[in-house]
């Protein structure tokens, strides 16, 4: 895509701190460095978000994540964990509309990254949970 900053980074039109590249993905340090080693992994082919991936691209991109994660772990032995984060569309926090996966090394509870899941389980009956599950399962059946 002509005006996509991540396409320009992958094509080396804009400098980046590259940590990995092959024919499918380009991985580089996020300039924000929420934690040391904060890395972005992008497909070289432009796609806006996860909803545009086909099975082949998804398999190829996500197959590279463990390799890069292990490199982060080896480079930062003090790392105590790793968050893998992928925001899709504006409401979910996506700010650059070229799909990208954040690899966020974790060093301590207060290292600059907070993620909180609120438990709403008490707000759903068993029947409502079944309806939700069935609705999604029916869509997956249509994908076969």
Automatic annotation (TrEMBL):
The record's Pfam families line, in alphabetical order, gives: HIT
Output the Gene Ontology terms for molecular function.
catalytic activity
Give a GO biological-process term: nucleotide metabolic process
Entry-linked InterPro entries: HINT, Histidine_triad_CS, Histidine_triad_HIT, HIT-like, HIT-like_sf
Annotated active site residues, numbered on this chain, are 100
Where does the chain cross the membrane?
none
HIT domain span? 5-114
So which domain of life are we looking at? Bacteria
* Coiled-coil blocks: none
Residue interval(s) of motif Histidine triad motif: 98-102
Q: What is this protein called?
A: Histidine triad (HIT) nucleotide-binding protein
Organism expressing this protein natively: Catellicoccus marimammalium M35/04/3
């Amino acid at each position: 895509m002509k005006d996509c900053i991540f396409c320009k980074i992958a094509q080396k039109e804009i400098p980046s701190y590259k940590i990995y590249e092959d024919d499918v993905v380009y991985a580089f340090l996020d300039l924000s460095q929420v934690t040391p080693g904060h890395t972005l992994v992008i497909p070289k082919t432009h796609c806006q978000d996860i909803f545009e991936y086909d099975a082949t691209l998804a398999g190829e991109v996500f197959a590279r994540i463990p390799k890069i994660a292990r490199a982060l772990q080896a480079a930062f032995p003090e790392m105590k964990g790793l968050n893998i984060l992928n925001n899709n569309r504006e409401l979910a926090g996506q700010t650059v509309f070229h799909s990208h996966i954040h690899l966020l090394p974790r060093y301590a509870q207060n290292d600059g990254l907070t993620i909180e899941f609120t438990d709403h389980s008490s707000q759903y009956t068993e029947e409502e949970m079944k309806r939700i599950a069935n609705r999604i399962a029916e869509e997956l059946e249509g994908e076969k």
